[in-house]
Known about the structure:
- The chain is an alpha/beta fold.
- The chain contains 5 helices and 9 strands, in the order βββαβααβαβββαβ.
- It has helices at residues 56-69, 87-90, 94-108, 140-162, 191-197; strands spanning 14-18, 37-46, 49-51, 74-81, 118-123, 167-173, 177-178, 181-182, 200-204.
- Strands 1, 2, 3, 4, 5, 6 and 9 form a 7-stranded mixed sheet that branches. The protein has a two-stranded antiparallel sheet with strand order 7-8.
- α3 crosses α4.
Amino acid sequence: MAFSAAVSAAPVIGAYYPGYKAASYPVSQIPADKITHLFYAFAKIEHGQCAVAPEAWAHFAALAELKREHPRLRTLISIGGWEADGFSDAARTRASRSRFVASCMDLFFSPRLDAFNGVDIDWEFPVYGGPLHIKARRQDRHNFTLLAREFRRSLDALGQARGRTYLLTAALPAGRLQSSGPYDPARSFELRPLAQTLDFINLMTYDMGTA
């Protein structure tokens, strides 16, 4: 099955917003007039489903207000992060992928919540290269592609129902050295299929400092 992603010639000026810093840097202070895309970091995975800290709901309400003030701003929920466990299990089977994606869609795209324009997958990393205590499998490389496709299907279906376009992105490594030593991103990710599925990729260029 072929998947197509939206292509835009407009530049992407994105910023990740760490929700755990909201007490010292509230959503209202985000310079939304200077960026095009905002990534809320992070949602986590608990028992195979999307989850957020209780205080995140106040942040989401503030994001919705920020979007009303800046209609061109696109906001995405970023799932994962360096210490996030659970991806390998969530992506392992068709049933686990469906359950996981459905939980994320229900949590972040309910009619009552208008905070997000898409999903950003931040799995660090499939197969190997992430924190040593994070579960990883050889099958993760292909399962990441299947997980991305499940998100793509769900976001496209929601967009068709609502007459809107929802984005799917991912944060991918650029460095050649990670926690367990020398690292090759091509061993973690099926790059061509992902490029056909995602709207765009956020390269973690700070990793180049370890190249």
